[in-house]
Specification:
- The structure is a homotetramer of 290-residue chains.
- Chain A has 290 residues and is an alpha/beta fold.
- Chain A contains twelve helices and seven strands.
- A seven-stranded mixed beta sheet of chain A has the order 2-1-3-4-5-6-7, with helices on both faces.
- In chain A, strand 4, helix 4 and strand 5 form a beta-alpha-beta unit.
- In chain A, helix 3 packs parallel to helix 4, helix 7 crosses helix 10 and helix 7 packs across helix 11.
- The N and C termini of chain A lie far apart (65 Å).
- Chains A and B meet through strand 6, strand 7, helix 7, helix 8 and helix 9 of A and strand 6, strand 7, helix 7, helix 8 and helix 9 of B.
């Protein structure tokens, strides 16, 4: 089918490519004229036949908000907007309401796949009305990996981004668990072949997983990760997971531990631990490192 | 090759069976005469040709200690004992020293596989001297899953149980991460199909894993787990992982969170939270539930 | 000085009383006519001489918002509104902007004191412009405990509620630490007099504190807290502390642990732990409690 | 009364001094002849009248074990040994058994006080038989702070060190809670006077405590702790608290978080976070800092 794609960066560009390979007609728009098929959002909308479908794949926050507002002005009743970016799930209902007031549909889609998606397919998690999801199924089917999994209609508007957010929260916790185990093995005098241990775990164990395979690949490149700094960004979705959990009074100790470990990794020095040092010094005359 | 197997319970019995299917001659001993090939440990030893190999597969702690001590009396220089149970890694050096004084070899093996092992193979993690590992390779090759993974010679005596322990620690953290994510999805009003969400994640996502597949299977049997109580035992290895980490000054926040969640799950009521309630009542006149 | 007090519940009523005892003229308004000095907010405003000061002491959220909006309509330029409730610090700037547009000042005050405040004084933490704080000093001086401490002008509008929020976060962590220690002592076979232990700690130790004194008082009433349930509400400020920390990328592992322990205490059964039980059952045939 | 004191370092020396000021006769022994009253342990024992009391105040572990073993050889039935060091509670029963076989009594005492103890008194927590505690009461009474608190007979042999250990665990959690709150206040744009905030909290708040007073003192010396490094040792007792909790299946999330924060503070770089960075790079092409 025909679809407009707004945002042709690493994610959007590859998704457009996968859609074209799958036989769809993609009209792409990007702020960068060198990679854009059209000169403006208006031109994009003009190039599409009604009822139109426009997939927005731009950074979360203001870029997404601005794009969707502009599309709300340009599109017509019966058209459909998809937000495939990493938006916060609360933004989705705002967008749906605003577009809905003009008769335009809205679907939010959490997309997982990173650099692997073009070749292997993108895991898709959608939220929205059944009739909108229905219309998008040819697109979803092409983007997702082959087989019966890799796509879900998770619930109402917002559900796509909500479940993608939780997916990432789980990912934080699983990565942290593997990383903690690796650190402990590296610290042991008994264990002399840590890489071979992780390699062996790829078969027959409870923890076999794609992350374990990536871990082995990373250790094959650099067996003690001596080339790396222990510094990890967080993408925002880990934070949102914890904040959503706090709102829902759901305890997330392992996932939160993973998020906090990332926060700590980015501190040149820990203010809290300065205070611990200061307090120890006050009550015990413990020496402080300065 | 020929091997003695001590302990023919769920694990040992199935391992003996997999070894026999693989062409090995297994002489099994169990306290339960109904399933034992021989009447005593002495008879087991007599039935084996020197140099003998005896695999001990009995509960960790006293049963394992007693069995290995008895074997130390019965076996001869050049024989080899394998502890395939869930022993603590510190016990291994004790056993190796005691047996070594009589010229008997010792290898510790962490075994993962549970109810799936007979059919799919057991993941094996071994610690010991290279020449002992070498002698056992025909056994390991039959027990482990097909393919290049599923077995590792991880290091010195103790390393097998140490890495198996850490494997289980990682397992605790990964399970907890998935469980937390599931609880948060269940708590959300937006998400209407949690089972379908987890199903879809089996393809194309970062968190695809065997545990995720088990989770889907569990939800297919009981979509909201309403038949279950939130009560989880711990096998000991999670505790040992945390204690070893504390000894090595390695922070394990996610894995420890998983262990503590299990502790809490087994308390009819939390003493600590009684104290929180009591304190709130003292300073704020907050009502307490009694 | 003269002041209007809106909300004469447990907190507001006692604060009005403490102000009166300190020689101030308090005109109180409450929705409950039985305890109200005036029949309406309008009447309250009419009774005060310009420039007026009105202290709002009603539940956080809608009641506070509605009250402040109404006061914005009734008051005049030069008047001053104080929000002494448990409002979120983000609400303060909204209120200050709205009132400021009409020339009305705004100060936020976090108030600690609970049932002890009337007699011993309330700890006050204020945010706002120096000239507004200045005007309120006679009120603050009467409300706060005697001595040089117990009051702070912490910063800009919002700072009062922010630091009160963090105070409560610290309180969560300190209470949890004491509660965990108590639970561990109760679990020990060696320790035969837990109450006497805590009593003794009131002198000469690093952990001597008001909370420790309250803990002793609680144990004196009920030595093993057998009359209580391990069920603890959270007042909202603990949640806000964690959410603010996540926003600021500040790791708060101990305070968050305390918050999550309260969440868990309120669950009849833990969904996450049901999932752990389900997963254990899937991979290991571990028996589940149902 | 008469007492021998073994170990005249910072703690033992000051305790001997406090005892002398209290009218006791102290014979001190230290490896350092410059500060020792006698030339050997044997000479110490010879100088004391039977039934003798010897207080051991040397570093935990081997020094304490060696000293107590040697005293076991030198002392006679009816004598009494006190271990006032930071020994692990499990060692106490070993010592008590060994000494008891020769008719010598044993009492373990956890001592808190640091640099403040000489002037203000030491908080003492004792474990042992009532008749031994009874004999030591004149000593305890002089060492402890004035007033009814500051000493407890907590239970059996081992209980003194156990409760001291838990005291320190609670201390870790309370310090961490304060440190986390301070870090969050420092991170806020709204709060302009963090030091004044903590100062004010010394009166009327729930968190008023000796640690809060020390915190204020530390900030008065260095308002943003810019002279300190965020590096904190742990004394061993925090680790033992967590290990004891794991053994007793008691969840200690806040105290453990405090311990792990110290571990992390001492790592030049976090191995676990290197792995997180490596994994992010593998699946997402996220840039890594190297």
């Amino acid at each position: 089918m025909q679809i407009g794609m707004v945002g042709l960066g690493k994610m959007g560009g590859n998704m457009a490519e996968r859609l074209r390979r799958g036989g769809h007609e993609v009209v792409g728009y990007d702020r960068n004229p060198a990679i854009s098929d059209v000169g403006s959002l208006r031109e994009l909308v003009d190039r599409l036949q009604a009822p139109r479908t426009v997939w927005v794949m731009v950074p979360a926050g203001d870029p997404t908000r601005t794009t969707i507002e502009r599309l709300g002005e340009l599109l017509s009743a019966g058209d459909l907007v998809v937000d495939g970016g990493n938006s916060h799930y609360r933004d989705d209902q705002v967008h749906a309401d605003r577009l809905g007031a003009r008769g335009i549909g809205f679907v939010d889609v959490g997309v997982s796949g990173g650099v692997w998606g073009l070749r292997e397919g993108y895991a898709l998690m959608a939220g929205g009305a059944p009739e909108h999801i229905e219309r998008l199924m040819p697109i979803f089917t092409t983007l997702k990996p082959p087989g019966e999994d890799g796509f879900v209609h998770a619930g109402k508007v917002g559900a796509g981004h909500f479940v993608k957010m939780v997916h990432n929260g789980i990912e934080y916790g699983m990565m942290q668990s593997l990383a903690e185990g690796w650190e402990l093995l590296e610290a042991s005098d008994l264990v002399t072949d840590v890489l071979a241990t992780f390699r062996s775990w790829r078969s027959g164990t409870v923890i076999r997983s794609w992350l374990l395979e990536l871990l082995v690949r990373a250790l094959e490149e650099d067996p003690h990760l001596s080339e790396l700094k222990g510094y990890a960004e967080d993408s925002g979705e880990g934070r949102w997971t914890v904040q959503a959990a706090v709102e829902h009074a759901v305890p997330l100790p392992a996932i939160t531990a993973a998020l906090y470990a990332r926060f700590t990794s980015r501190q040149a020095d820990s203010p809290a631990m300065k205070m611990i040092a200061a307090l120890r010094n006050q009550f015990g005359g413990h020496p402080v490192a300065s």
